[in-house]
Amino acid sequence: MTVNLIPSTHATVELFPTVVSNAIAKLSIEEEKHIDIDIDNIEENTYSRINLPITYNIGDTQTNLASLISNYLRTLNSYYLRNLGYPTNQVFNYEALVPLLNFHLNNAGDPFLGSSFSLNSTAFEVCVLDWFANLWEIENNEYWRYVTTGGTEGNLHGILVRTLVLGEIDCVDLKALLVAHNDKPAIINLNIGTTMKGGVNDLDLVIQTLQERGFTSDRFYIHCDGALFGIMLPFIERAPRISFKKGIGSVAISGHKILGCPIPCGIVIIKALSRDVEYIASRDVTITGSRCGHAPIFLWYGIKRKGIMGLKNEVQKCIMNARYLHHRLRDAEIGAILNEFSNIVVFEKPLDENFTRRWNLACTGNIAHVVVMQHVTIEMLDSFVREFLRWTLSTSMRCKRR
Ligand SMILES: Cc1ncc(COP(=O)(O)O)c(C=O)c1O
Fold first, then answer.
1. Which CATH code fits 308-401?
2. What's the rounded Cα separation, in Å, for the pair 190 and 226?
């Protein structure tokens, strides 16, 4: 496939050199079957690792490099069609942004102040941040924020406090802890969607618990870790709302999860607490120095293209498909759980490691999960369940024979 993104007569041709791509495009599961990629032997078949080491004193040829990249694309195609365990959205088309990859864009420093490095995309970044500020209900002059390298960097702006059990806070225990530590302020890192089980903490209940124990808004700080669910809940009916109007201090999400940014990135928005914080915010408010200038443009493009309605449809489809998988597993008598506002289906870890690897399942202890993202179709889920049953049967037969 050849993509000429900029007509050669265009006045900006020197600014945006033509990018030619002869890469295999992303395949559908049907197309993948058609070109017959053998997923079971992917290591030997498509990944010419042998040619990857950089050992030459002289540069390699374009032809060799193109063939290595083509091989790598075949590998990626096979994996992304069975990527069930991790919450990355693989459905996107950013071809229109390819010309921007000819530039190093760097957003070092505060996006609202800009910097003397003029090849930056802070104008796009500010638009993305304003969109999130509006979503989470905070006025423009009340916060500082920036596009991060991912959910984790956003979480570093909060402080972790011990919570109970696996994810969701047990508010009865929280109450007891608050009574025991009544003399100190409470700093809470609240999971809005736990990683493994997709348990959504009830923000309203946590705030109510704090208030009942006499913790007024100046005596608590809540950071919301909404890596995946922070951008899903606003589009699900009756789901708990994240809003700065409720008195939270900060929110972080990942940009490569629901929003489908090809580069790992995220958003953090932090309510300005005092003059001192404002003072720091007016200088370098970020953790990293150099920051990816392409990420805010990918985020901006993705959100602008889909709009609220597009995002809502995608989130609802993920939730419906997760419910479908949940039912299919239960019908097949495989114990599975699915939290109410969640797209994460949890079940007992399959015994065969080849199976978990083949479907890219994330496992912890004796449980595994499927995160139903936008690229996960009913067809994929059907073939997953079929194989799950087949492999479970053959593993148990092997165990019996021993
Ligand atoms: C609750 C939660 N927080 C943080 C992260 C990490 O996010 P990132 O990969 O963007 O650093 C994840 C990743 O799945 C997550 O589920």
1. 3.90.1150.10
2. 8
Sheet holding 336-338, edge to edge: 336-338, 344-348, 367-371, 362-364
What CA–CA distances, in Å, run from 30 to 1, 211, 287?
Answer: 19, 55, 44
CA of 363 to the centre of ligand 1 (A): 15
Read off the pLDDT of residues 63-77 as tens digits, 9 standing for 90 and up.
988 999 998 888 888
User: Is residue 77 classed as helix, strand or coil in its secondary structure?
Assistant: helix
Interatomic CA distance for residues 153 and 227, integer angstroms: 11
Distance 2 CA to ligand 1 centre (A): 36
Ligand 1: distance of its center to the CA of 342 in Å?
Answer: 15
Euclidean distance between CA atoms 47 and 72, whole angstroms: 6
Residue with the smallest CA separation from ligand 1 atom 3 is: 227
In CATH, 102-306 is 3.40.640.10 = yes
Ligand 1 neighbours, Cβ below 6 Å, are: 87, 150-152, 191, 193, 195, 225, 227-228, 254, 266
The confidence score (pLDDT) of residue 109 equals: 85
pLDDT tens digits for range 280-291: 344 556 888 889
Q: Does pTM top 0.85 for this prediction?
A: no
The ligand 1 atom at the shortest distance from the C-alpha of residue 228 is 16
pLDDT exceeds cutoff 60 at 43: no
Structure tokens at 300: 């901006």
Quote the ligand 1 centre to 172 CA distance (angstroms). Answer: 26
- The full set of domain ranges for the chain reads 29-81, 102-306, 308-401
Amino acid at 209: T
Instruction: Please choose, from the candidates 70, 26, 29, the residue with its C-alpha nearest in 3D space to the C-alpha of residue 46.
Output: 70
Pocket probe mutation, ligand 1, options 147, 148, 189, 195, max atoms within 8 Å of Cβ: 195
Looking at the predicted structure, is the pLDDT value of residue 20 above 60? no
Closest ligand 1 atom to the C-alpha of 194? 1
Whether 162 has a pLDDT exceeding 60, the answer reads no
Rounded to 5 degrees, φ, ψ at 352 are: -90, 115
Q: What is the pLDDT of residues 340-396, one digit of tens each?
A: 999 999 999 998 999 999 999 999 999 999 999 999 999 999 999 999 999 887 776
Average pLDDT, the chain: 83
